[in-house]
Design brief:
Layout lengths: L4 E2 L4 E2 L1 E5 L2 H4 L15 E4 L8 E5 L2 H13 L17 E13 L5 E2 L8 E7 L9 E4 L5 E4 L5 E5 L4 E4 L2 E15 L6 H8 L5 E3 L5 E3 L2 E2 L1
Antiparallel strand pairs: 1-2, 3-11, 4-5, 5-6, 6-13, 7-12, 8-11, 8-13, 9-10, 9-12, 14-15, 15-16
Length: 215
């Protein structure tokens, strides 16, 4: 089993890591221009907030996210936990936006994957520190995590969390990636999350799926 406990946060399967702000800030260019529907897809979960996941839906926009995923060295933080053939695979990249949240929607991104998949979250806008994350500690109590520029959370199985209720005059934007094993045998469990968050997903074997098509 590859599960672990973060003693500082008192929660399972979550890491707090430093990030290269120079690379993260390159995504700010996407905030200042209209995003083409050819290159980006927007999904909105049925939560009690206006949160939206904006993800690449063309190979060129996917490569934009992937190149920076590599330069940030995100894979290095989770390699010891993964069952790998060659290396860590990025499944999707996102800009996560929100300006209001009425009440929590606690959920896990991953469950019963044996930590074969992870989510990365770091603030892209400075106003994120006042509109953070709620999570459940190992003992079931609820704690609060405030996003900090230059820091990121990486979490896997059983990390129960929610957007913290609040409101912001300007949208809060987070940078996110989903990633993990490159072995297809783990995809059935991973796909329960990874296959439903956007329109273009890279599989563990390196191929892409667009909705129900594969190429």
């Amino acid at each position: 089993m590859r599960h672990f406990l973060n003693n500082k946060l008192e929660a399972p399967n979550v890491l707090e890591v430093d990030v290269d702000l120079a690379v993260v800030n390159e995504f700010s260019a996407l905030l200042n221009v209209p995003l083409s529907k050819v290159d980006f897809h927007t999904a909105k979960p049925k939560w009690k907030s206006d949160v939206a996941w904006i993800s690449p839906c063309s190979l060129s926009s996917f490569k934009y996210f992937h190149s920076r995923f590599v330069r940030l060295g995100i894979a290095n933080h989770v390699t010891p936990f993964l069952d790998l053939k060659k290396g860590v695979r990025m499944y999707m990249g996102f800009l996560v936006t929100r300006s209001t949240c009425v009440s929590p929607d606690f959920h896990t991104d991953w469950d019963e994957t044996n930590n074969e998949a992870f989510t990365f979250l770091t603030p892209l806008t400075e106003n994120a520190n006042s509109f953070g994350l709620l999570y459940k500690k190992q003992d079931g109590s609820i704690a609060e995590y405030n996003y900090s520029v230059g820091k990121a959370l990486i979490f896997g199985d059983r990390f129960i969390h929610s957007t913290k209720p609040g409101k912001s005059e300007q949208p809060v934007v987070l940078l996110s990636f989903t990633f993990g094993t490159d072995k297809m045998e783990h995809w059935p469990a991973i796909s329960r999350t990874a296959a439903s968050q956007g329109n273009l997903v890279r599989l563990p074997n390196g191929r892409f799926i667009v909705r129900d098509m594969e190429y």
